[in-house]
Amino acid sequence: MNPAKNNNRRKNTEGAIMAAAEELFLEKGYQLATTTEIARRAGVTHAMLHYYFQTKEQIFFKVLDKNLHDLFSSIKDAMSTENISFWENLKGGVTRLLEFLDQHRQLVGFLYDVARHNPELLKRYHESTLNLISGLAGHHKLLLDCEIRAGRCNPITFEQLFLDIVTMSFSTYMLLPVINQAVDIKETEMDRMLKRRHDEIIATLYHRLYGKCEPNR
Q: What is the pLDDT of residue 82?
């Protein structure tokens, strides 16, 4: 068999299994999603699924690896831009985070559920996540310190700023299932509401840093 065709077939099959697994993880949660259902939705036999992935845990790691890689790469690209202000750099990173969460609206709730019921699955990400945050934080902490020393922004620690970004961004998507259950909101209105929420998060961060009500968007 042609090696290139064989490689493409393998990638396509793995991709189909991962896509089906992600859908079921988000719909049912990690515990209730079974490899039998994943195989059925991916259009492969159960034996073929286990040829590519020995366990459901392996599929979970592969799916989460892909999502985290896409998120971190996007944020890193946005926050590595040179010759722009600290605020523009920060806003670029936060905007990429919010865009990613908007495209993966169920992901935050799913990870929270995993953290509660299967915390061991997330332990392997401690070091890589800390390394990534440290890599971004090192440079931007210096930029923030320069802003503060120059009197251009309000005094705030980088750690507190990071917590502000994470709590405002993630809590928005954590609450979506509650909102959907409590209020009948059409998808188009939900999209508009989330866009306004994104603008509000950016404006709140700007106000916290610079004491003005409206950032230069």
A: 73
Return the ∠ at Cα 40 (arms to 36 and 45), rounded to 5°. 80
What tokens does 41 get?
A: 């939705």
Lowest-pLDDT choice from 24-33, 47-56, 131-140: 131-140
- d(C-alpha 136, C-alpha 77), whole Å: 11
pLDDT band, very low/low/confident/very high, at 178 (cuts 50, 70, 90) = confident
Q: Render 47-110 in DSSP notation, one character per residue.
A: HHHHHH-SSHHHHHHHHHHHHHHHHHHHHHHHTT--SS-HHHHHHHHHHHHHHHHHHTTTHHHH
Nearest to 32 by CA among 40, 41, 21: 21
More confident residue, 212 or 29: 29
76, two tokens: 């890193």
How many Å separate Cα 71 from the centre of its chain? Answer: 5
